[in-house]
Design goal:
By secondary structure, the protein is mostly helical. The chain is 51% helix and 0% strand. The chain has a domain at 45-98. This is NADH dehydrogenase.
């Protein structure tokens, strides 16, 4: 006979109230802040080409002319994101690596032996 699980309420009530209070405070702060009007680049700004020029230390004006945008600020963010994604990929590969590399995994559970195996 199975029994249905019981809800554990020990200590979660205070944590729930704290989470709701934090949500209300952050919501009030966010709703009370006035943001300036959005500012962007001109219509013909070549942001991607300027970023590429900054990566290879080329003067952006040589590639895109008047549409050049200073790309050094973008370059720092781009490199930091690339490092974070590389670290995440390395971590995923380390977690996925098997401890016992000699054991091969067969998709059918090991019941089928192909080739010359008897």
């Amino acid at each position: 006979m199975t029994t249905k699980p019981e809800l554990q309420t020990e200590g979660s009530f205070v944590a729930g109230l704290a989470a709701i209070a934090l949500f209300v405070v952050l919501g009030a702060v966010f709703m009370g802040v006035s943001f300036p009007a959005p500012a962007g680049f001109g219509e013909g700004a070549a942001i991607t080409k300027s970023l590429g020029a900054a990566m290879f230390d080329i003067e952006p004006g040589l590639l895109v002319g008047d549409a050049a945008v200073p790309g050094e600020g973008f370059l720092v963010a781009f490199i930091l994101i690339a490092i974070a994604l590389d670290a995440a990929l390395d971590g995923a590969l380390m977690l996925a690596k098997r401890d016992d590399e000699e054991e091969t995994v067969v998709a059918d559970g090991g019941t089928h032996h192909g080739g010359d195996d008897s």
